[in-house]
């Protein structure tokens, strides 16, 4: 009988394929930095790290060209993306930073956090800690404000595709 499991955890293609089988929410982290909106899309976003103090986290590749800019923001808006955002999510994550927000409806807070309209959850955050983690950094954010609107269904990243939850 053939063993369907691979023990080659160093194979990036196998690892990526295995990780894609874990469904996760998608978040846009954004702020106005030097009078320009910056956005980073993360499928590694995790809530419930801590309730006291209120902490969330995500992982970002060390090769990111957006994170160094976004990490200087006083405040970062986290928009948990909804099903309505599926058509624009790849645009938000595109390499062409000038086109990321084209046609995207947003709200900018007094602190410079940028939130996407029609998101099920908005979290206003500040950076609490940054930890090295291989080819990524783990960023822990402190939640300083929030808003939820559960009339919008969340967007889910599963098997390298955007999808929505089904009842």
- Gap from first CA to last CA: 37 Å
Determine the fraction of residues in helical runs and give it as a percent range: 10-25%
Strand ordering within the main sheet: 3-2-6-9-10-5-4
User: What is the overall pLDDT average?
Assistant: 88
% residues in beta strands: 35-45%
CATH class: Mainly Beta
Secondary-structure element string: HEEEEEHEHEEEEEE
Report the structural category: mainly beta
Radius of gyration over alpha carbons?
A: 16 Å
Instruction: Kindly state the number of beta strands.
Output: 12
Q: Which second-level CATH architecture applies? A: Roll
Main beta-sheet strand count, sense and barrel state:
7 strands, antiparallel
Q: Kindly report the name of the CATH homologous superfamily.
A: Electron Transport, Fmn-binding Protein, Chain A
| Low-pLDDT runs | none
Instruction: Estimate nothing, just give the exact number of structural domains.
Output: 1
Shape: globular
Number of helices: 3
**CATH topological fold name:** Pnp Oxidase, Chain A
Summarize it:
This protein is mainly beta and 167 residues long.
Describe the protein in words.
It is a single chain. This protein has helices at 12-20, 67-70, 86-92, and strands at residues 24-25, 27-33, 36-42, 46-51, 54-61, 76-80, 106-108, 114-116, 121-133, 136-148, 155-158, 161-164. It is mainly beta and 167 residues long. The chain has a single domain, classed as Roll (Pnp Oxidase, Chain A), CATH 2.30.110. It has a seven-stranded antiparallel β-sheet. It has a three-stranded antiparallel β-sheet with strand order 1-11-12, with no helix packed on it. A two-stranded antiparallel sheet has the order 7-8. The chain contains three helices and twelve strands; from the N terminus they run αβββββαβαββββββ. The radius of gyration is 16 Å and the shape is globular. It is 12% helix and 45% strand.
């Amino acid at each position: 009988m053939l063993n369907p499991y691979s023990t080659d955890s160093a194979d990036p293609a196998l690892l990526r394929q295995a990780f894609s089988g874990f469904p996760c929410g998608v978040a846009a982290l954004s702020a106005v930095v030097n009078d320009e909106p910056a956005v980073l899309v993360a499928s590694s976003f995790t809530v419930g790290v801590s309730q006291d103090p209120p902490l969330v986290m995500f992982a970002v590749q060390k090769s990111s060209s957006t994170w160094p800019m976004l990490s200087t923001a006083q405040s970062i808006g986290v928009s948990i993306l909804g099903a309505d955002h599926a058509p624009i999510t790849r645009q938000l994550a595109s390499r062409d930073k000038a086109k990321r927000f084209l046609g995207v409806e947003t709200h900018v807070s007094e602190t410079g956090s940028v939130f996407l309209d029609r998101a099920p959850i908005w979290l206003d955050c500040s950076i609490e800690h940054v930890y090295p983690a291989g080819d990524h950094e783990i960023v822990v954010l402190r939640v300083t404000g929030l808003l939820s609107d559960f009339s919008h269904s969340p967007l889910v990243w599963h098997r390298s595709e955007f999808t929505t939850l089904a009842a």
